[in-house]
Design brief:
This protein is an alpha+beta fold. About 15% of the residues lie in helices and about 25% in strands.
Amino acid sequence: MAEIANHIDYDQLPAPEEGFLVTLFITVRKVARSRDFYSKVLGGTVVLDENPCIVKLANSWILMNPGGPPTPDKPGITVTDYEPDDTTSIFLNLRVADIQACYKLWSERGAQFLTPPIDRGAELRCYMRDPDGYLIEVGQATGVLTGQLADKRPEDLPG
């Protein structure tokens, strides 16, 4: 059986001619499902269908592949599926121009938000999860544009 060639958008590949750029790699259980979320729900451009899947989101790229065992370039390290729960140590942060418009559009496209946008003083923000449970913050700068910062939590204060 002949193998079907991947779609590759060569002009959008994250391959700088000098210096570097930042991409985010996430381990996903089902590449097609995650590719659909980042392209159809969030409006990204599919650059490479799979192995790894690459979706360009605004000025960044999300790379997606299933987990796997150690490889020669990362000996002793296994890439595992994310197990979402009530803690996280890293999340994707999307800065938007109009949070209400994004919240409405992405909700209509199937995004599941934890809450509607909340005014935090320095910004409006809300969170959603992708199909694998990764946390995604959606924020719009508001008060910070005029010097208003978020309130400090007691654990952030010196001493």
